[in-house]
Amino acid sequence: MVNILVIVVSVLIIMIILLIAYIIFFQLQLRNINRQLNKRLTEYTRQPITLELNNKDLNALAVNINKCLKAEETLRLESIREEKRFKELIANISHDLRTPLTAIKGYQQLLGKGILSKDQQQKLQIAQKHADELGTLINHFFEYSYLINAEPVLNRERINLTNLVAECLAVSIPLLEENNLEVHYEETSPLFVFADREMIIRIIQNLMRNCVEHSDSPIEVRLIAEKNVVISFSNFVKSPSEIDVNKLFDRFYTTDKARNKNTGLGLSIIKLLAEQMGGSASASLQDRLLEIKIELPHYK
């Protein structure tokens, strides 16, 4: 009887040891799966998940994980191809529209040199105004397509941002006066950035156009010295309920699709330019006050 009990206990001990070994090996396999998944995320490899243990459930799990990974990779590649097709479409549209518009403006100029009645002159002026608006939209398309397709060539230099912003605002005075707007610029001690001068000018110009279109108050412009240098444009907006700050920098996002005459690319271009210089763009809306911040690398 004692011998039988010893045998039973011995068998149970062996079974427990085997079970513990199996559980440990099972856990090691789960850790191995997790390690392989983490490697795919951090090293961007496309290697499928493999197992060392022949377990039906674990094998089924690995097969399903690999199917999901393959489906995700297929979607990613299709998204890249679709993005490329979209960029080419934008570039082609902007190019195709510029040629007939140039011809339209040329004929308008020829008509303006002729003898026209007062009514005809008014109609020609209206046509010229719409042609100019169309030209602005096409230029946005052209600029955006260039930025997303071409490798950025930056002419980085040490720039006195305090002076450059003041110069750009001075150039914008006629546009502000035409729209009965004022700009208040809080001048600071010289702040320097390491960036591309032409890109900064384009950013400020686009910010001014955005403010003119949506502003319902004087425009406040500030430079803030933080870890980097921040250009802040703030103003009260006409229709705050129509603005989604989370989508403000999305391409083709417009606040009022029924009346808006812009492409929604102005702020997208600002974001692209800022990021190409190693900076960023952000926006916040509190009550009716919209603030757009452009952060650029500080040069001390």
What does this structure look like?
The chain is elongated, with a radius of gyration of 31 Å. It is built from 7 helices and 7 strands. It folds into 2 domains: 79-149, Helix Hairpins (Orthogonal Bundle); 156-296, Heat Shock Protein 90. β4 and β5 (229-236) form a beta hairpin. The protein has 300 residues and is of the alpha+beta class. The chain has helices at 2-43, 56-113, 118-149, 161-171, 173-178, 197-214, 266-276; strands at 156-160, 183-186, 192-196, 219-225, 229-236, 280-286, 289-296. The mean pLDDT is 81.
Q: Mean of the pLDDT scores? A: 81
Number of DSSP strand runs: 7
CATH topology call of the largest domain: Heat Shock Protein 90
- How many domain regions? 2
Indicate the proportion of strand residues. Answer: 5-15%
Strand-pairing-aware structural class: alpha+beta
Can you count the helices?
Answer: 7
| Overall 3D shape | elongated
* CATH superfamily (homologous) name of the largest domain: Histidine kinase-like ATPase, C-terminal domain
